[in-house]
Amino acid sequence: MAQLGRWKYGLFTFVAMILQCLCVSAFDTWWNLGVRGFKAWRNPQLYVIGAQPLCTQLKGLSPAQVRLCQSYHDHMPSVGHGASMGIQECQRQFQNRRWNCSTIADDSSVFGPVLNIASPEAAFTHAISAAGVVFSISRGCREGELSKCSCSRSSRPKSLHRDWIWGGCGDNLEYGYRFAKMFVDIREREKNHPRHSPGLARMLMNLRNNEAGRLAVYRYSKVACKCHGVSGSCSLKTCWRQLPEFRTVGDRLKDKYDGATKVVFNKRGTQLKSENSKYNKPTKEDLIYLEDSPDYCDPNKVTGSFGTKGRECKKSSPGMDGCKLMCCGRGYNTFKRKVKERCHCKFHWCCFVQCDVCEHIEDVHTCK
């Protein structure tokens, strides 16, 4: 019997290694809602398929998230939209990097094995996705799309002009933050991990980066106002709380990515601390990571790297988008490309713009 047990254990280990080599992700994620057509959720007839709620049919949701989905089913289109916003912003921020936030078709982890590494890239994806949910839910409240919230009831800013009216229909960041914290974090808290375990370290890392993403939206809202008065004289204004531009949220988190802090367990193995004690303690708005990034130069199924062969680069740029760094020292090829663009545009009264189409030839460089 003991020999049979060892044989089964060996077989299990072998299968696990094969799955890893075949690029099978270690976990599914709710980000799958952002690439699987969240618009379908807006059809109320799809909430139930036969006797099974649609929530149980969705890939990527943890058991606790399925239960939340069933209680807040009208929130799911906003969650999916938030996930989609996060994915698109990630790809915009990293379009000129070796890792360009590529998604993988038919993989419910969305980004593939790259997420199995507790790297700065994984930290950013968690943060920007959590930020997307805060943004989308907060806006959904204001638009009247959600049954459990409405316009923001935040208090009047002390700096607001005393003659201006506070009370327009603002984005409900308070509710958006609370719901995003509940929905996104609950999958991390479902399991109990022992002290000093890799599972606990990754859970703590994900929770911190989720919070950094939420705060990148919540703490940077702005006041928007509408003018009233004779002929728009702005003698009176009505003001409300408004979300920041999501692009500025992405820019803020990209800066945090560039300055992310590597962390390790404390002596008790219950919390994470900076690996280098000379550095300042990371704040709640900072990103943290456990493992250094792969170089992403060559294709690697285990790390999820697609490599940079064939990627466009800029010959004269000293940055990561430059051919020297993007091509990892392999050199680059150059070819000519014909480009068409609008030109000689003129405004005609009233009211349209008419443009010609111009062509020019440009040099294009791609990594070897």
Characterization of this structure:
The protein has helices at 2-21, 63-71, 76-93, 120-142, 173-186, 198-218, 246-258, 323-326, and strands at residues 48-49, 52-53, 165-166, 222-228, 236-242, 261-265, 272-274, 288-289, 299-300, 305-306, 312-313, 332-348, 352-367. The chain is built from 8 helices and 13 strands. It has 2 domains: 24-157 and 166-220 and 241-307, no CATH class; 312-368, Wnt (Wingless and Int-1), C-terminal domain (Endo-n-acetylneuraminidase fold). Mean pLDDT is 85; it is low at 1-26 and 44-52. Helix 4 (120-142) packs antiparallel against helix 7. Strands 3-5-4 form a 3-stranded mixed sheet, with no helix packed on it. The termini are far apart. The chain has 368 residues and is an alpha+beta fold.
Blueprint (SSEs and pairs):
Blueprint: H1 2-21, E1 48-49, E2 52-53, H2 63-71, H3 76-93, H4 120-142, E3 165-166, H5 173-186, H6 198-218, E4 222-228, E5 236-242, H7 246-258, E6 261-265, E7 272-274, E8 288-289, E9 299-300, E10 305-306, E11 312-313, H8 323-326, E12 332-348, E13 352-367
Parallel strand pairs: 3-5, 6-8
Antiparallel strand pairs: 1-2, 4-5, 6-7, 9-10, 11-13, 12-13
Helix pairs in contact: 3-4, 3-7, 4-5, 4-6, 4-7, 5-6, 6-7
What's the order of the H and E elements?
HEEHHHEHHEEHEEEEEEHEE
| Principal-axis shape | globular
Please state the CA-atom Rg, rounded to the nearest Å. Answer: 24 Å
Q: How many domains make up the 3D coordinates?
A: 2
